[in-house]
Design brief:
The protein is α/β, with parallel strands linked by helices and 366 residues long. The chain has 14 helices and 13 strands. Helix 3 crosses helix 11 and helix 4 packs across helix 5.
């Protein structure tokens, strides 16, 4: 039964890029590992550490640690599907630079140059190995770690967050309630379901930021909204009007909202993380904003906001898109990476891989 579940889960959820977008080489003079020179030229060599980490399940995963000289916090980033850290490098680099954070990215087992085969349980072991490496190598405490999970990466991020009571914060980018709920509207969890985020979000004690696009055709925005509603410590979510599943980084609201979130998190005294509501800082920030200069419409409940893209926003979006996309579009591999970036539901629904009737039959037989 367990084997059948694991096999079905792997078929439904995991699509590692083939071939991987990068190689790992070791400098004979220094013994330091590097990835492809095309990507490394965007950052000084001493600011990037490429490592291989052994997981408790026996796989060796590849990680990339980007250092920022003034960082107070470290982001542990779990990427989406159909990509690897080579394709994600430009985004990692931009986030570290603009958010003033250290950033640790890693490839799941079976992704990139990591060994093994992907599965739900492997991803849990993978993120735990990356987390342990941060603590053992740099002494990074839970209070200084922000977990960032994008789409399928929301699974391992929530699993780890649910077990870390002193975690600083959690970001969920285009997350889903569970693997089965991406395809079907089910009210109850089944034994064969994977990544049951809907159950784990209620165990997370730290502030939670949810980012989701209103036009996401892969994982409907209702997934993100329900996860936000179930969060204990809600931070103002970012619902990007017109955003799809794989282009949210291009919106002009994306980086400023993340900067605002991290700024609020940094203000929280560490001993009071569980007693002081992050919403207090937002209410102060909101009161200090000049309404005439605000680019967001605040609506509804305690922190809910809807971002409306205007003509001016569109021009800003093009500028930011150029900044993110310039290096990425410099090679065919980066272009292919964005076109195939994180397609969990889309790939499942694709007739070329497995149509819906096929999935239904697999579920019925299981």
């Amino acid at each position: 039964m367990g084997t059948a579940t694991s096999t079905m889960a792997a078929k439904l959820a995991f699509f590692p890029p083939n071939p991987p977008s990068y190689t790992v080489v070791t400098d004979e003079s220094t013994g330091k590992m590097r990835i492809s020179a095309e990507m490394m030229r965007h950052r000084r060599d001493e600011e990037i550490e490429v490592v291989k980490i052994m997981t408790k399940r026996g796989n060796e995963i590849v990680g990339m640690y980007i250092k920022h000289p003034t960082a107070k916090l470290t982001v542990l980033y779990s990427h989406g599907n159909a990509t690897d850290i080579g394709q994600m490098f430009i985004i990692y680099n931009e986030l570290s630079h603009h958010l003033n954070v250290n950033l640790m990215g890693y490839d799941y087992s079976g992704y990139g140059r990591s060994s093994g085969k992907p599965s739900e349980q492997e991803t849990y072991a993978d993120i735990e190995a990356a987390y342990d490496w941060l603590r053992e190598t740099y002494g990074t405490k839970d209070e200084r770690i922000i977990l960032y999970g994008q789409s399928v990466g929301s699974g391992p991020s929530l699993e780890l967050a649910s077990r870390l009571p002193r975690l600083r914060a959690l970001v969920l980018h285009s997350p889903f309630l569970s693997g089965l709920r991406v395809m079907y509207h089910v009210k109850h969890s089944f034994w064969f379901d994977i990544f049951k985020n809907i159950e784990k979000i209620q165990l997370v004690d730290c502030p939670v930021l949810v980012i989701h696009g209103t036009d996401d055709k892969v994982v409907d925005i209702s997934h993100g909204k329900q996860l936000w509603e179930l969060s204990k410590e809600k931070y103002e979510p970012l619902w990007l009007k017109g955003g799809s599943h794989c282009n949210l980084e291009m919106f002009p609201e994306y980086l400023p909202h993340l900067r605002k979130f991290i700024g609020a998190i940094e203000k929280l005294p560490v001993p009071q993380l569980r007693r002081h509501s992050v919403s207090d800082d937002h209410k102060k920030d909101k009161q200090q904003l000049d309404p005439k200069k605000s680019t967001s419409n605040w609506i509804g409940s305690r922190h809910s906001t809807e971002c409306v893209v205007t003509s001016r926003d569109k021009s800003r979006k093009m500028s930011i898109g150029h900044r993110f996309g310039k290096a990425r579009n410099s090679t065919d591999s980066f272009d292919r990476a964005r076109n195939s970036f994180d397609r969990l539901g889309e790939m499942v629904r694709s007739v070329r891989l497995c149509n819906v009737d096929c999935v239904k039959n697999a579920v019925a037989k299981a």
